[in-house]
Amino acid sequence: MSASTPLVRHATDNHVSIITLNRPETLNAIAPDQRERLIQLFSEASADPAVRAVVLTGTGRGFCAGADLRGGASAAGERVAGDVARTLRLGAQRLIAAVLDCEKPVIAAVNGTAAGLGAHLAFACDLVLAAESARFIEVFVRRGLVPDGGGAYLLPRLIGPQRAKELMFFGDALTAPDAERLGLVNRVVPDADLDKTARDWATRLATGPTRALALTKQLVNASLDSDRATAFAAEATAQEINMTTADAREGVTSFVERRGPEFRGR
């Protein structure tokens, strides 16, 4: 790949931000500068009123093979206690948080292998579409490592602790249909249909009530760490805030007038 080729491709089309990992020769393993670009794009999507949904995918045969470990800590000489934890906090964990905290709905279109951090990047998205050829691998145990990049936080919340431990203890490759059966994937589609399906879903989201979707995402994510009283209070507050939006007024008005709503993301 030439020096002028972007490591992350980005385009906005019909209010959809399309983010594409573009290191196919490494199965889109994430290098530090690529990670920083992703974090920037998710932050910009949150702040840009013209963006109302996000699609994350990859080029080539892999969605993302995880963090690019070449030239990492093992090659940098003597390790100082605290270096690894600091690297994770400032690196992989920031990336996963950027997806979870993005104020727009994020769709992962998993086009191939998603391993390690790459799998967690997909699982952090709000909706996950997988091509039939996709595989998900908790690869850490194969390297003698602890799962990082938010894995031990995400997986138990998605599929329960026993299933999460099974995946993390054995590190076996999980096919797309098996991932769908476990609840890690919303839908499996033929490889040739992945891009179209992702764009169709994103277009539907981009024509929805954007602020209501953002508040809904926030409520659902926060509920996993909340007691009932806290969750109910957050729900009431979110609805109070949402009722000040133009889209909420349009939704109620269109119902009264017996017509379809025309949401504008405001």
TrEMBL record:
Q: Which SUPFAM superfamilies match?
A: ClpP/crotonase
List, alphabetically, the Pfam families matched.
ECH_1
Against InterPro entries, the record matches this protein to: ClpP/crotonase-like_dom_sf, Enoyl-CoA_hydra/iso, Enoyl-CoA_hydra_C
Gene3D superfamilies membership: 2-enoyl-CoA Hydratase, Chain A, domain 1 (3.90.226.10), Lyase 2-enoyl-coa Hydratase, Chain A, domain 2 (1.10.12.10)
Q: Which residues form the signal peptide?
A: none
UniProt feature coiled coil, ranges: none
Q: Which family does it belong to?
A: Belongs to the enoyl-CoA hydratase/isomerase family.
Protein name per UniProt? Enoyl-CoA hydratase/isomerase family protein
